[in-house]
Design goal:
Blueprint lengths: L10 E5 L5 H7 L2 E5 L14 E6 L2 E7 L5 H14 L5 E10 L14 E9 L3 E4 L2 E4 L12 H10 L2 H21 L12 E3 L27 H4 L3 H4 L6 E4 L10 E8 L7 H11 L1 E5 L2 H5 L4 E9 L10 H18 L30 H11 L8 E6 L6 H11 L6 E6 L3 H10 L1 H4 L11 H15 L7 E6 L28 E6 L9 E4 L5 H11 L6 H8 L3 H13 L3 H14 L3 H10 L1 H7 L11 H4 L1 H10 L1 H10 L9 H5 L9 H7 L2 H13 L4 E3 L4 E3 L2 H13 L3 H14 L9 H18 L9 H16 L3 H19 L4 H18 L19 H4 L5 H13 L3
Parallel strand pairs: 1-4, 1-5, 5-13, 6-11, 11-12, 14-17, 14-18, 15-16, 16-17
Antiparallel strand pairs: 2-3, 3-4, 5-12, 6-13, 7-8, 9-10, 19-20
Helix pairs in contact: 4-9, 12-14, 15-17, 15-18, 17-19, 19-20, 22-23, 23-25, 23-26, 23-27, 28-29, 28-30, 30-31, 30-32, 31-32, 32-34
Length: 871
């Protein structure tokens, strides 16, 4: 009897491109529906389906549009949208076989491979010396779940294998009767060459043939497309020839399958993987399905994964793989979970924000699982993921949910944007806990409130202990809300029972008081590079492609972009998407970022998986909230951007009080250390500023820094903030008798470099504090031996004094005297060894000799000041 809905399908068969529709339909004992005419599918699902029955199983069959892990992952992901109760997927098709596996049981063409584990042999790091495959437990796909492992272990017995093979032969014969295309080729065509013997021309064929020139492994395309018999492959290099007609029955092998985005066509590489990872087969789709649902790979062997591949065995291998899949399902009896009837709610990806690129963060995922995994006895666990907006908190939470969907009985995602959004999210879960589809929505606010309450009651039921809730983007928090606050108390929406697992993603560090703190930091440099390459259109081996396709400078440009964006996931993903969509090179993007930051960000389209907008928009709501709460703290944030972002401390900022006209907000912010810490606490709580506990200072992310420049310009605060920063740095330059003089100078130097390089300061006129700050920066550079920068500071300070007070004013003369004396002293440090640095007392010396590095005008000012200012 035909099932009434898609929820009654628990088995999926995912077919590779080469598995033809005729074989697919031969698998089915009964066809229920073709191409969704009856069952339809969910919006956003691009797959095409055939529904039917194999034995006692309702089965949905879908074919991939192309080869590779990406296509497989896309098909599997869409499959779960329309068929959320799928518990097992069979990946059926053809593969390359390892002729001599470590088990000692030889594999021949037409045999069948069944996976009991999968490895990705193209997942790793590309070094200049070669490719290194990642082999850690966290880096590999590993084994299937316990239920599948137990079943496969039972199939390993001699009797079970013999029975499975007999069923497979019966189904294979039925397929072959329907079409002679699926019959077995001649045994004489099952040829295995030596692993090192290349399939290539061994005599010149054309001027463009590369088989005989260059590297020994170079092979032209003509050779690759030519069969061994036409190419004339040396029969003396055959290592195994299958001629015995008694060995024509295909065998079934169970073991590790190697999966990758590339076709294995190297006998030597094949044998190395067989030896290192005990591999028995090679294919291209299994790894993509593995991360989305429990799966088993069942494929017929059509070649030996070497360069001597031909298509003669593909049809027969397709048939043996399909026949084995059907035989397998006749044995498969899935375990009925005890909680399934009452508390099991399938994961619905359509309820989650789309996630396109997720890279790295394996340590974060591991730490979350160690804390959140269901325990006996059950206790409620709340993980608070906090960090800068755009750092990747939501993506981490969603990836965790997808990775552990089978470990929780139900997974719900809630929008925590505000109280109303959260109530609607809870209300939308009500039909799901009843087993209904999602189109049953609340009709009004009152009904939404009622449904949300019922969902919380359901989550608190005894025995319903293994659920996971994600409260996403909880960026408002008011544990004691009143009429003057716009936030809400997230704890109001926690189920009352002491069980279950909760994830909160937020920018507010204060929320860590409701659960365990998980501070989400920037991506590592390696992961940031991988995300940039992937989002800009390169494959996982993009680093190698960069070296092959572009100039060597491109690698440096990639590193420069990664350093500039400093591990901020959103900024990296937006940069990659912009380059991919506009054809912009890495080098060109870097220049645009530096020269036209605001215009570049305004053109960046928000990604589907990030609901807060692009870089210009992502911190706007937070900033506006700070402005309402504490306008002084909001302006202080903008000021921090005008310093070097890596080490900012109170005494440095406080130097700005020496400005001629200190703005009131600044006086309020730095009047004392306690007032300063109160404002900084607001910024730290919103994750816009990060404390450095040991140094007693603070940092600001470089992309936030660029965003602050944009906001400051829009609020016409650039001149004021720059003047405050310049004066702050200048007046913090220590005297030689100050404590920790040398250490403070080294700490201050990056800020001095930043303020003089960030902007031109010629428009800061008639500001005595600015000239004094510049002169002090001259002292700093002089003491550090950077004489060119020192001279620039001295001249700018002197020009300011002379313009405002006149060249004959006592202050101008005194400054000219002091500055020229300091410059003269520093200049003697660069004299040749033959020139005495301490001339005999009273011995005259020409000005140009005493001061070889000074411009003539400054030398004359020095002399004039000594004559006239001392009268």
């Amino acid at each position: 009897m035909r099932p009434s809905s898609r929820d009654e399908f628990s088995i999926a068969i995912i077919c590779s491109l080469t598995l033809k529709v005729e074989v697919v339909e031969e698998l089915l004992d009964e066809v229920y529906d073709r191409l969704g005419g009856y069952y339809r599918k969910q919006p956003g699902d691009d797959n095409a389906y055939i529904n039917g029955r194999i034995g006692n199983h309702n089965v949905v069959v879908c074919c991939m549009p192309g080869m590779g892990k990406g296509n497989a992952a896309s098909v599997a992901s869409s499959l779960k949208i329309s068929y959320p109760r799928i518990s097992l997927a069979l990946v059926v098709g053809i593969c390359g076989g390892a002729p001599y596996p470590l088990s000692g049981e030889e594999i021949f063409l037409g045999d069948v491979i069944i996976s009991d584990s999968v490895i990705q042999y193209d997942f790793g790091r590309q070094y200049s010396g070669g490719f290194e495959k990642k082999t850690g437990v966290k880096d590999s796909l590993g084994r299937p779940n316990k239920e599948i492992r137990a079943f496969l272990a039972a199939l390993q017995t001699r009797r079970s294998r013999r029975d499975l093979q007999a069923k497979m032969l019966r189904h294979l014969q039925a397929i072959q009767r329907s079409n002679p295309e699926w019959h077995r080729p001649r045994s004489a065509d099952d040829i295995l060459f030596e692993a090192s013997y290349q399939h290539k021309h061994f005599s010149p064929t054309s001027p463009i043939c590369c088989c005989l020139g260059g590297k020994s492994r170079d092979v032209c395309k003509s050779a690759l497309d030519t069969a061994c018999i036409q190419l004339g492959c040396d029969k003396n290099r055959i290592s195994r020839l299958r001629c015995n007609a008694e060995n024509c029955i295909p065998s079934i092998h169970i073991g590790t399958v190697a999966s990758a985005d590339t076709v294995m066509k190297s006998g030597e590489h094949r044998d190395r993987l067989v030896k290192s990872d005990n591999v028995i087969g090679f294919e291209m789709e299994g790894a993509g399905v593995w991360d989305n649902t429990s799966c088993i790979i069942i494929k017929g062997v059509c070649d030996y994964a070497d360069s001597h591949q031909n298509k003669a065995w593909q049809a027969y291998a397709t048939a043996t793989g399909a026949a084995t899949a059907k035989a397998f399902l006749e044995y498969w009896v899935p375990t009925v979970r005890e909680e399934a009837n009452e508390f099991q709610v399938p994961l619905e990806l359509s309820a989650f924000p789309a996630i396109e690129e997720f890279i790295g963060r394996e340590d974060d995922l591991s730490r979350l699982w160690d804390y959140l995994q269901p325990t006996i006895p059950p206790t409620r666990k709340v993980a608070v993921l906090h960090g800068l907006g755009g750092i990747g908190k939501t993506q981490l939470a969603i990836n965790f949910a997808r990775k552990h969907k089978d470990d929780f009985t139900a997974v719900f995602w809630m929008s925590g944007k505000d109280r109303s959004a959260l109530i609607l999210s809870l209300s939308s879960c009500f039909p799901r806990i009843l087993g209904h589809r999602r189109n049953d929505e609340a009709k009004n606010e009152e009904e939404a409130e009622q449904r949300a309450s019922q969902v919380l009651q359901w989550l608190a039921l005894p025995g319903n202990t293994k659920w996971l809730i994600i409260f996403d983007n909880v960026d408002q928090y008011a544990p004691f809300p009143d009429c003057n606050t716009c936030g809400y108390d997230i704890c109001e929406f926690f189920p009352t029972a002491d069980h279950g697992s909760i994830i909160i993603t937020t920018r507010l560090q204060r929320l860590t008081e409701v659960g365990r703190s998980f501070s989400i930091k920037k991506l590592t440099q390696e992961d940031a590079i991988q995300l940039l390459l992937q989002s800009s259109g390169f494959s996982a081996q993009g680093a190698a492609q960069v070296e092959a396709k572009g100039p060597r400078l491109t690698a440096a440009d990639i590193m420069a972009i990664v350093d500039q964006l400093d591990g901020l996931s959103l900024a990296i993903a937006l940069a990659g998407a912009f380059m991919r969509e506009t054809g912009t090179s890495f080098k060109e993007y870097l220049q645009l970022y530096k020269d036209q930051w605001s215009e570049l960000q305004s053109q960046a389209k928000p990604t589907r998986h990030y609901q807060q907008g692009n870089i210009l928009e992502t911190w706007t709501t937070t900033y506006q909230g700070i402005q309402k709460q504490d306008p002084t703290a909001a302006t202080l944030l903008l000021l921090l951007a005008y310093f070097d972002n890596r080490d900012i401390w109170y005494e440095l900022i406080r130097g700005g009080l020496n400005c001629s006209h200190t703005p009131p907000w600044f006086k309020a912010a730095v009047s004392n250390k306690l007032a300063f810490k109160a404002r900084i606490k607001v910024l730290v709580d919103c994750s816009l500023v990060e404390p450095r506990q040991q140094e007693g200072s603070f940092t600001i992310h470089p992309v936030v820094q660029d965003w602050c420049f944009h906001i400051a310009a829009s609020e016409e605060r650039t001149v004021q903030l720059y003047e405050l920063a310049l004066v702050s740095v200048g007046y913090t330059v220590p005297r030689k008798d100050d404590r920790e003089y040398a250490q403070l100078q080294q700490r201050l130097l990056p800020h001095a470099d930043y303020v003089i390089q960030r902007e031109k300061y010629s428009w800061l006129e008639d500001k005595v504090a600015v000239w004094r700050a510049l002169s002090r920066l001259g002292n700093l550079y002089t003491n550090q031996g950077r004489l060119q920068e020192a001279e620039e500071m001295y001249q700018r300070a002197l020009a300011g004094y002379e313009k405002a007070l006149g060249p004959d004013h006592a202050k101008s003369c005194k400054l000219a005297d002091d500055l020229a004396s300091r410059a003269s002293l520093s200049a003697t440090q660069e004299m040749p060894d033959s020139m005495p640095s301490n001339p005999t007392a009273g011995q005259p010396r020409a000005v140009s000799t005493l001061q070889p590095s000074l411009p003539e005008s400054l030398q004359k000012r020095h002399v004039f000041s000594r004559i006239f200012c001392r009268r």
